[in-house]
Design a protein that fits this description.
By secondary structure, the chain is of the alpha/beta class. The protein has helices at about 40-45, 50-60, 75-85, 155-170, 195-205, 225-230, 250-255, 265-275, 295-305, 330-340, and strands at about 1-5, 10-15, 90-100, 105-110, 115-120, 125-130, 135, 150-155, 180-185, 215-220, 240-245, 280-290, 310-315, 345-350, 375. An eleven-stranded mixed sheet has the order 14-13-12-11-10-9-6-5-4-3-15, with helices on one face. A two-stranded antiparallel ribbon has the order 1-2. It is elongated and about 70 Å long. The two termini are about 35 Å apart.
């Protein structure tokens, strides 16, 4: 535990809550205002009337202020003390890159100088925000550019929420928040940062928070089995997507080394035991790699794996990138695979977005040389 002196007392801030060896040694920064819930704010504002915590909460998430000075409902001396006690915690923007299809990839700078990427994908019926949950990623999937970075640290709940606040403000989305769709499929393995992810989801979905339906928030995992069960017990939780990408244990171990610890059969058992809500299906993500996992035999094995699971399948033809040794399958091969799977479960081909700016699925990585397209601002 670490402490900072706040308002004449000690405000206690927990160290990393991740309990898996892979992230045990990864530090987290001190908390900022964005990311705090009512109990956190009450502790921070100890000695003030109880309603002050709600006022600050409403300002942070309901009115989405960009500085403590904008919380005019607080007396000026209290604003000054609050400003000194904790930073607001919104990310800065280093750069944003615009794709030919309208997708925007943002490089956001955190308070400690670390950077993460987030993506805005406009669509006719909704706007999707793809956000990160860690700086880098520890899972080491062989077909993913982010895996080449390794892991630097977890993001706090505020840094997760801050990405949503930044992208929504930059793209004028708050006029109709019902259009906002959030996928935690950017940098990182969300279930290795589960306490912060769930705290962020509570803020994102709270009626006096950002008011986004949990039906519109999806967390994708490579298959951290104990954490899947833990998330299933959370009172407020997002949808769950499983990054599967293989039809056999041997395939998955080669493509996703995490399988050496969390085996495919055990993962499928955890999926069958997952407590789906009445409106909910599990999603399975399957990246198709030419000549590796894209055969008709793979499709039939996938169908058998998913038997008796209320689910849908999202197919992703590999989005290539520098340092990735696999190739994208031919469209006919993708269509054949999809036709076999959709006989047993809803099966969709995910349209690549922002591939030309390395914003597509599996491409997020802080490039030292950016693609030769439009850099907007800085």
């Amino acid at each position: 535990m670490r402490t900072r002196r706040k308002f004449g007392r000690h405000f206690t801030i927990p160290a990393s809550t991740a309990n898996l060896n892979i992230v045990d040694r990864v530090p987290e920064p001190l908390n900022a205002l964005v990311g705090m819930e009512i109990p956190d704010l009450r502790e921070l504002l100890a000695g003030e009337p109880g309603y002050r915590a709600q006022q600050v909460y409403d300002a942070l998430y309901g009115r989405r202020v960009t500085s403590v000075d904008e919380i005019r409902v607080l007396p000026a001396p209290l604003r000054s003390r609050l400003r000194d006690a904790a930073p607001l915690g919104l990310p800065g923007q280093d750069s944003v890159f615009l794709s030919a299809d309208g997708t925007r990839r943002y490089l956001l700078r955190l308070a400690d100088g670390k950077t993460v990427e987030a993506v805005f994908m406009p669509e006719e019926a909704r706007d999707t925000l793809c956000i990160s949950t860690q700086v880098g990623c520890p899972v080491d999937c062989r077909f993913c550019l982010t895996a080449l970075m390794g892991l630097e640290r977890n993001l706090t709940a505020g840094e997760i929420v801050g990405q949503v606040l930044h992208l929504a403000r930059a793209n004028h989305l708050w006029a109709d928040a019902r259009r906002i769709n959030i996928v935690m499929m950017g940098m990182g393995e969300p279930l290795l940062n589960l306490p912060n992810v769930l705290k962020a989801v509570r803020i994102l979905t709270a009626s006096r928070g950002l008011g986004i339906s949990p039906r519109r928030i999806t967390v994708s995992t490579s298959g951290i089995i104990p954490k899947i069960a833990e998330m299933g017990q959370a009172e407020v939780r997002p949808r769950l997507a499983i990054s599967l990408n293989a039809s056999t244990e041997e395939q998955r171990r080669e493509l996703m080394p995490i399988t050496r610890k969390y085996h495919l059969n055990d993962l499928m058992a955890a999926c069958r035991a997952y407590p789906l809500r009445t409106w909910e299906k599990l999603s399975f993500e399957y990246v198709l790699l030419r000549g590796v996992n894209d055969t008709d035999a793979d499709a039939r094995r996938l169908v058998r794996l998913l038997a008796n699971i209320n689910c849908k399948v999202n197919l992703i033809a590999l989005n290539p990138g520098p340092g990735i040794q696999f190739e994208t399958p031919d469209p006919d091969r993708v269509a054949s695979f999809q036709a076999i799977v959709r006989k047993s479960a809803p099966c969709f081909l995910r349209k690549p977005r922002g591939r030309d700016i390395y914003a597509a699925c599996g491409q997020l990585k802080r490039m030292t040389e950016e693609p030769p397209l439009v850099a907007i601002g800085g």
